[in-house]
Amino acid sequence: MSTELLLHFTTIAAQHIELPRQLFGFLPFYFADWSAFWAMGRYGFFVWLSFGLTYFLLVALIGWSYYQQRLLKHQIKAKLAREQRVKQYQELER
Questions:
Q1: Are 19 and 37 contacting, i.e. CB atoms less than 8 angstroms apart?
Q2: Residue 29 and residue 19 in contact, taking contact as beta carbons nearer than 8 Å
Q3: Confidence label for 40 from pLDDT (cuts 50, 70 and 90)
Q4: Whole-prediction pTM
Q5: SS3 of residue 22 by DSSP
Q6: Closest Cα partner for 44 from 57, 58, 31?
Q7: How confident is the model at residue 82 (pLDDT cuts 50, 70, 90)?
Q8: Residue 18 near residue 37, CB atoms below 8 Å
């Protein structure tokens, strides 16, 4: 029984595994196998390069926004501290 089961699994593993006909149950999948998916009809380099560049720029934008937020908070703190020092100095002169 176990050799039969093992033989069954090895024949399944040796077969060419096809991609699903639909993604998530409703989206059609247009590629026959994984190599065709990665090649994208000879435009794979440009497709994956554009995806990579887009994700890189999104991450860079998020990082830059975070940096600018920290810088703005620091500038506001410095401005408030300066205004407080000026106010204290003006009170001492009276």
A1: yes
A2: yes
A3: confident
A4: 0.57
A5: strand
A6: 31
A7: very high
A8: no
Widest CA span in the chain: 101
Beta bridge partners, 22, equal 28
Determine contact, residues 6/12, Cβ cutoff 8 Å: no
> How far, in Å, CA of 48 to CA of 40, rounded?
9
Tokens of 51: 């995806």
Assess contact for 32 and 19: CB atoms under 8 A: yes
Residues 30, 40: Cα–Cα separation, whole Å: 10
**Percent over 70 (pLDDT), the chain:** 69
Number of C-beta neighbours around residue 37 at 10 A: 13
